[in-house]
Amino acid sequence: MKRDDTLTELAFTIAGRIAGSCAEVYEAVANPEQLSRYFTTGGARGRLEPGEQVKWDFADFPGDFPVTVIDAEPPHRIVIEWSNEATISTSGITKVVFEFEPIDGDSRTLVTITETSWRPTAEGAEAAFGNCEGWTLMLAGLKAWLEHGINLREGFYQ
Fold this sequence. Notes:
Largest sheet: 7 strands, antiparallel
CATH class: Alpha Beta
Structural class: alpha+beta
CATH architecture: 2-Layer Sandwich
Number of domains: 1
CATH topology: Alpha-D-Glucose-1,6-Bisphosphate, Chain A, domain 4
Order of helices and strands: EHHEEEEEEH
Radius of gyration: 16 Å
């Protein structure tokens, strides 16, 4: 049997373990006030709830980014979409899925973030790698914030 190795889409998944219940960790992502403390250095407006379009702003990429919430299943899953020119979708969006899995009797949470829909081109790879870096820093920031009250991004980009 011949195997087809044609690359049609770039995607990535990252994961990290955070001390706190699924409900606590989920809330730190869904709540714009909390998200603004460790991730969206320019602020977040709007709660991550199905059908909502929220705004995220970053010091390293100034300007509001509209984020559409496709699905949310508290405290286990959030699905968002946001735009980028280097996507395979006809509407120019990527899809991001946050999954929150209880571990150690729900005293810790495994957070998995998957982003899909990047074009298999140099431009798509550059955008995907950049977002992979951003989501990895988001998870590190979430961990530092919830476990130690430290904002890792403060002063990082300015």
